[in-house]
Amino acid sequence: MRKNIKIIGSGFSALAAACYLAKEGNKVTIYEKNSTIGGRARQLKKDGFTFDIGPTWYWMPDVFERFFNDFGKKPSDYYELIKLSPAYQVYFGVNEFVTIADNLPEIITTFESIEKGSGEKLASFMKEAQSNYDIAIKDLVYRPGVSPLELITVETALKVNQFFGNISKDIRRRFKNKKLVQILEFPVLFLGAKPSDTPSFYNFMNFADFGLGTWHPKNGMYSVVLAMEQLAKELGVTINVNSNIEKIEVTDGKATALVINGEKVAADIILSGADYHHSETLLDEKHRAYSEKYCKY
Ligand SMILES: Cc1cc2nc3c(=O)[nH]c(=O)nc-3n(C[C@H](O)[C@H](O)[C@H](O)COP(=O)(O)OP(=O)(O)OC[C@H]3O[C@@H](n4cnc5c(N)ncnc54)[C@H](O)[C@@H]3O)c2cc1C
């Protein structure tokens, strides 16, 4: 049955969810509190200049391909993607930097020039990272995320030791040069955790970096937001800006309406693409899953 679905926010998560839900035949409406869409990836225009205010690293182009392919489209239908060469430079001081090439063989040569023997170690580290990428990004991340048991598969069971060791120790065991260690520890920071708190299995982020490369859409990251907006509209999604959600109303234990700029709007399903803690504050306290104390921790 066609459901009336209201979505809070217009970041990547909300836009992606809106596309999938509209494709299923639902009536989907997005409410964004700001005057423009994109959330943390939105754009700032000032004094004739245009800035991306959030993301700049376009990694894992395969994930974007897969998203657009799900709708019979491809990223190039909406924006031009450029592989950066070199990928980037890491600065350790004013004139002290390491250049990361856009291909693994050259990166291996760079490593070898900094620490003898590290080139071969990098090649074997990257093989492991690639195998983990194939498991994690091609399968695990597409599971619904409702139970930790989803992480247990034949492939991950064979790599169980990599869930107990951390990536920092693993890298430092293989590489001694401080700069190389820092370069290899950097990608997992994107996951929001310290390398010393991140299981070795997550070295798939190193494959995303050195193996798949760093890309950038020709007109900046906001091109991706505009692409997703266009797709959402093609699928029939309605997008409202300047629409602050003040409250999620609950009836008989079910979220049934939103209060938007003082006006109540009914919904069959409410989905929030806003931060988890903020979304919970839109509910009366008795309906929240976590306490303030837990969220602060
Ligand atoms: C400075 C910076 C640099 C980054 N760099 C990178 C990078 O290089 N590569 C990368 O992959 N990622 C990067 N990220 C992370 C990436 O930008 C975010 O993970 C992503 O944009 C989050 O999308 P989202 O949809 O989950 O949330 P958000 O983008 O936060 O979207 C939430 C939306 O909900 C709206 N909202 C909130 N409350 C309400 C309300 N009550 N009513 C209505 N609307 C509401 C917000 O205005 C917002 O539009 C970076 C982030 C930042 C901030």
What do these coordinates show?
- The chain is α/β, with parallel strands linked by helices.
- It folds into 2 domains: 134 residues, FAD/NAD(P)-binding domain, CATH 3.50.50.60; 99 residues, Guanine Nucleotide Dissociation Inhibitor, domain 1 (Orthogonal Bundle), CATH 1.10.405.
- Helix content is 35%, strand content 20%.
- The strands form 5 sheets. It has a 4-stranded parallel β-sheet with strand order 9-2-1-13, with helices on one face.
- The longest helix is centred in the middle third of the chain and has 19 residues.
- The chain is globular and about 65 Å long.
- The structure holds flavin-adenine dinucleotide.
List the helices and strands and how they pair.
Elements: E1 4-8, H1 12-23, E2 27-31, E3 43-46, E4 49-52, H2 61-69, E5 81-83, E6 88-93, E7 96-100, H3 104-114, H4 118-136, H5 154-157, H6 167-174, H7 178-185, H8 204-211, E8 215-217, H9 222-234, E9 238-240, E10 245-251, E11 254-260, E12 263-266, E13 269-272, H10 276-281, H11 292-296
Parallel strand pairs: 1-2, 1-13, 2-9
Antiparallel strand pairs: 3-4, 5-8, 6-7, 10-11, 11-12
Helix pairs in contact: 1-9, 3-4, 4-8
Bound molecules: flavin-adenine dinucleotide.
Short description:
The chain has 297 residues and is of the alpha/beta class. The protein has eleven helices and 13 strands.
